[in-house]
Amino acid sequence: MNKGYITIVGYLLFLAGILSIILSMVGLQLTFLSWISSFGAGASIIIKLVLLFSGLIIMYISKMPPEDEDLEVNL
């Protein structure tokens, strides 16, 4: 899969997580993430944080340069 698409998926996960956390502070929620509220307050904030951090991790990993496994350094 192309790195650009993976970066977009990571960004969308991060955006959904941060928006859902910010909106929940003012009593609103995103419609497509309303099912998260059924788990309760504690579990829903954990799920939203997992969305946020998994998006960041995916974006970071997709931006890392590929490793060359063929190169070996002999000292």
Provide structural commentary.
- The structure is a single chain.
- The chain is mainly alpha-helical and 75 residues long.
- It has one domain (3-63).
- Helices cover 61% and strands 0% of the residues.
- The protein is built from 2 helices and no strands.
- The chain has helices at 3-25, 41-63.
- α1 runs antiparallel to α2 (41-63).
- It is elongated.
- 9% of the residues are buried.
Main attributes of the structure:
75 residues; 61% helix; elongated; 0% strand
**Beta-strand content bin:** under 5%
Global structural class: mainly alpha
Largest sheet report: none
Q: Give the CA-based shape.
A: elongated
The beta-strand count equals 0
Rg to the nearest angstrom? 17 Å
Ends: how far apart? 36 Å
Helical coverage, percent range: 55-70%
List low-confidence stretches.
none
Q: Compute the average pLDDT.
A: 89
Q: Write down the domain tally.
A: 1
Elements, N to C (H/E)? HH
Number of helical segments?
A: 2
In short, what is this structure?
The chain has 2 helices and no strands. With 75 residues, the chain is mainly alpha-helical.
List the helices and strands and how they pair.
Blueprint: H1 3-25, H2 41-63
Helix pairs in contact: 1-2
